């Protein structure tokens, strides 16, 4: 295997750029355009789907059947304005699985439909602990939280005058950083880290002139967090689909942030046994640091693909990510191991 260090550096560079683009489900056009532009600059010919995702063929010399579709998603958790309160503050309805316990005290951006972007903070109602004697006892639920605008407003009418209205998007600050020890910390590593890994994979195919064993497509979806991201846009000739998403790290699982995870089963049921077996064999052959795990509370793009009626073998891999749907953490080693597995699984043996 050639040295992957430069490709891992490229992945992390693109990851930080992508994390800086707000893209909660339903507000993904800017992030999707970024994905389109990166694949274009790498020499590929991406397509925009009507739904808003990006589809790209990484092996345009292949036309036969038996193709592989790699699915990642650029949409993230977030929120939407559900009501403007009488004091000018905002009620929020979540987009995807955003948890109020993980959202409290986070800075947010409110993207209006026609009047620009405003800043604010997600807070518990009556958030001053020196005033609220029940602060510690209040359960953090969306009906006990609110968005406090960083504007001089104290009424519904004043907030409406800013151009803020029901249905506007609420984006949470990602707080992205990479430590000297190689840890990657940010909201929304699910799934922007794996999208960036696919950038590195595409760059390696081009730069190293890798010969792929079959047609390989990438679909970067934009509705995964609400369950239907991968339901459409499967290219003709594809017979296997693999979600490249986050790998779970937590109590009872063996994966760490420094490994690539191969999922054998999640809340939707088992993945294709032959695909899991083949991914594991490729990991061993390519000397990848990996783990095989079962995720108790998880769903993926590829399950949406299957639910839409596509007849495919299917699997799921991803870099280990701790504290999923919160302030997430991974590591550059897990990034590199995921890239190594993708190359080992798709390339002709003489290349790896």
Q: List the uncertain runs.
A: none
Percentage of residues in DSSP E strands: 25-35%
Number of strands: 19
As a whole number of angstroms, the C-alpha radius of gyration is 21 Å
Large-scale geometry: globular
Helix content range: 25-40%
Averaged pLDDT: 96
Subunit organisation of the chains: single chain
Largest sheet: 10 strands, mixed
Topology order in helix (H) and strand (E) letters: HHEEEEEHEEEHEEEHEEEEEHEHEEH
Distance between the termini: 5 Å
Structural class: alpha+beta
Q: Give me the number of helical elements.
A: 8
Provide a short characterization of the protein structure.
Helix content is 26%, strand content 28%. It has helices spanning 5-19, 29-41, 100-103, 156-161, 189-207, 273-285, 301-307, 332-346, and strands at 47-48, 54-57, 67-73, 78-84, 90-95, 107-111, 117-124, 145-149, 169-172, 177-178, 183-186, 216-221, 238-244, 247-249, 260-266, 269-270, 290-294, 313-322, 328-331.
